[in-house]
Amino acid sequence: MPRDAYIFTSESVSEGHPDKVCDQISDAVLDAFLTEEPEARVAAETFATTNRVVIGGEVGLSDPAKLSQYLERVEDITRACIKGIGYEQDEFHHATVEVTNLLHRQSAHIAQGVDASVGKDEGAGDQGIMFGYATTETDALMPAPIQYSHAILRRLAEVRKDGTEPTLRPDAKSQLSLRYEGGKPVGVTSIVLSTQHADEAQSSADIRDIVEPYIREVLPDGWLTEATKWWVNPTGVFVIGGPDGDAGLTGRKIIVDTYGGAAPHGGGAFSGKDPTKVDRSAAYAARYLAKNIVAAGMAERCTLQLSYAIGVSEPLSIYVDTHGTGKVADEAVERAVGRVMDLTPQGIRTHLGLNRPIYQRTAAYGHFGRAPEADGGFSWERVDLADALKGEV
Question: Which of 83, 289, 308, 352 has the CB geometry, 3.0–4.6 Å to 379, for a possible disulfide?
């Protein structure tokens, strides 16, 4: 029997966290190439440290002669991304940071596994396993600890950027421990919030006075009680932050990006990768399917796994686990999934409209649990497949 009374913890990091700075730069570069060529192949990795950003990886274009002119824009894209996050520190400033661009042409040996040809469908860009997850514990069908950890930091970023809280700075982390009863979240046992700030004279108590009203605004009524333990800037002064305080790297926050540890992760990072890479696109498809299974009322919780081989178009396996909450057999749901959606790499991209510049916005505050947007952003959060799934079982 699954446990229904326990404490579960998840963390999030802000857009100014060093690793998230790198994720956003990688995805901003990806968006720029997709704007110019929707079928562009991109794998962009970013490293950031004190007054330095290095971008490497590969790019494939239908006309390789255009690559050099597009690469000339990467430095401006990087600076604009850092400026948008809000970094204007002496040791990490959008105007003065040194940007090294090492992007190069995609390997022909990688491209041959992906490209469609006569008598051959487009294959997956790599082998791998991808997971999707959904649960009824929040309206977004996401695990509550990660969803609210994101929401806290997103709200603090809003009041930092609009000038309401001028002493807050971009780098921040949150962590929520939630108490579950009957398998549902009912309260916060502890909250950890560390945020960069402007003045060394500001104490932990001063920072708590700033952030607590916004945290209470975000969390459901009754979740914070006198028994809740608060840890706000527990180490004290946090003025030196961002890549100046700790180096950043693309792809180091994959659990923050997904389900906060409440569900498995396939191992592949998302940011900087174009949607031919199933690490990204199939993980989006798995979330889309799991969310639609739960939205259809077929289960209260659903984990869905897909697997692929490089150069092979069809998934090698589809696995569904509804954790004992399913209204129909998991095997029947697995069969339905394969009938309602084309799960080849090209089929996923077409169904979800992924060949668009929609990725920089995903690179902070989670790839999942967001509202679908009019331009196709977060299309994997739609629940438009629920009726089709019900019709197949």
Answer: 352
Q: Which of 17, 41, 197, 349 is catalytic?
A: 17
Identify whether 19 is a catalytic site residue.
Answer: yes
Full DSSP string of 42-98:
EEEEEEEETTEEEEEEEEE-SSGGGHHHHHTTHHHHHHHHHHHHT-EETTEETTT-E
Q: What is the dihedral of CA 291, 294, 299, 303, to 10 degrees?
A: 10
Per-residue pLDDT tens digits of the chain, which is 393 residues long: 568 899 999 999 999 999 999 999 999 999 999 999 999 999 999 999 999 999 999 999 988 888 888 899 999 999 999 999 999 999 999 999 999 999 998 765 555 555 554 445 678 878 899 999 999 999 999 999 999 999 999 999 999 999 999 999 999 999 999 999 999 999 999 999 999 999 999 999 999 999 999 999 999 999 999 999 999 999 999 999 999 999 999 999 999 999 999 999 997 999 999 999 999 999 999 999 999 999 999 999 999 999 999 889 999 999 999 999 999 999 999 999 999 999 999 999 999 999 999 999 999 999 999 999 999 999 999 999 999 999 998
Question: Is 17 tagged catalytic?
Answer: yes
Instruction: Look up 120 and say whether it is catalytic.
Output: no
Determine the Cα–Cα distance for residues 285 and 124; give it in Å rounded to an integer. 14
pTM of the model: 0.95
Q: Is 238 a catalytic residue?
A: yes
Catalytic residue among 41, 79, 169, 273, which? 273
| Catalytic-role residue among 246, 314, 334, 342 | 246
Q: Which of 15, 27, 31, 45 is catalytic?
A: 45
